[in-house]
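Appendix B. Worked example

We walk through a single record from start to finish. Start with the input: the chain for Mannitol dehydrogenase family protein, Maritimibacter dapengensis, length 495.
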Amino acid sequence: MDELNSLVTLSNATLGDLPEGVPGPTYDRGKLTPGIVHIGLGNFHRAHQAWYLHRLMQDGLALDWAIIGAGVRPYDEVQRKKMATQDNLTTLIELDPRGTSAEVTGAMIGYVPIEEGNGPLIAQMADPAIRIVALTVTEGGYYIDPVTKRLDTKHPDIVHDAAHPTTPRTAFGAMVAALRMRRDQGLDPFTGQSCDNLQGNGAILRDTIVSLARMSDPDLAHWIDTNATFPNSMVDCIVPATGEKELALARRFGIDDAVPVTHENFRQWVIEDDFCAGRPDWDKVGATFTDDVHAFEAMKIRILNGGHQVISDPGEVLGVETISGCMEHPLIGALFRKVALEEVVPHVHAVPDMTPEAYVDLIEARFSNPKIVDTVRRVAFDGSSRHTGFILPVLRDALAAGTPYDGLALSQAIWARMCEGTREDGSAIAPNDPIWRDLSKAAAAAKDDPAVWLAQKNLYGDLAGNEAFAARFSHWLEKVWSDGTEAAISSYLYG
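Next comes the structure step. The output line below is what the pipeline stores for this chain.
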């Protein structure tokens, strides 16, 4: 009880009482005005984009760019209420191997109520004060048709939004509705800013918004395409999910925070400077503006995000709970390094001050940080989006160039083994993908006929027809099932 009584309950009123060594906002939050709506306000956003804005505000800058949080799903209301009880403040806890530290950030000043039809969200985005609408809705949240790589216009949510443009279900439908209101009122559009791990994320967001608008209002689609901007960007920071450990860690710092965020001691944000309604000077606090985001995002997506999939799937099958635990494993850690250096690096270009080989070293160190309790389950989630977005493009490049790809084929076999739904110790793997039922069915059948797994056209397209790849995939899947995952990895590493 004494410990609870000594905690600072996070709010504007208690900012002056923060424990020693825990800095808080030096700016007057009462004088902040909104400039950004951020949809999908989870841990990553608060540890990354919101942190950059907080840093600017600490320097007395960007005080008219405060963030209004938003969501479009019922579960977002739970987060909104938690944030509201603490005046939308966040405790950020940096997990540096050299020492853990905490700070309280305050760049977010509101959170839009979650309602069916998204009326409050549309109204907020239509406010002329809002000049950027940003999103973190995960790689699988863009309704992309896996075959055409464009908006899936037949998805029920998209069909609904086209038929009911004033009461949409999706974030994209709400953005279209707000842009319609702005056009009709003679206002300029806002910038749409994707902050998700998608190569060409701005271009994908543009296509999603314009294509959806075209389904109900072609003139509006043309207006958006002509006047709005959608900068590409690359975002990077490892941010674990919040659970009891993270809540307890905040309490050890002397703060009662219902939704604290832990993160690694690394951030990177590379942004195309294409903002139709202005932007904060994020470059003054470490972000990079460039005309060549593609090279940065290709390096990160292929080595970091792809590497996460390479190690998390065997970790799940072998019962390893964390990413740092995977890197400590004598085979999984070596698997990452060999695949990255020999099979991925040949298809990644250097960027200023960083070669692909040096980036592999950096990612190896970041993955190995023992203070980051990043669960294998979180990283392995939604493999149907992540493998197709992070690994298969490299595999296609390797097949076309005639460079090594055996480890990439092995990664697909281990993913198929994971999706069968059991670990090697016999315990069950809980469903962990939006299409888990289909994946599990294919994985079970592939145990006897590996071709069944590759026949999933929504994942592999024409790759199933590549005889060389199909043969190596079959070899590895058969070996995984007959000899075990460790034996298969060992065979790949050492012959």
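Two observations about the output. The first strand starts at residue 8 and ends at 9. The radius of gyration is 23 Å.
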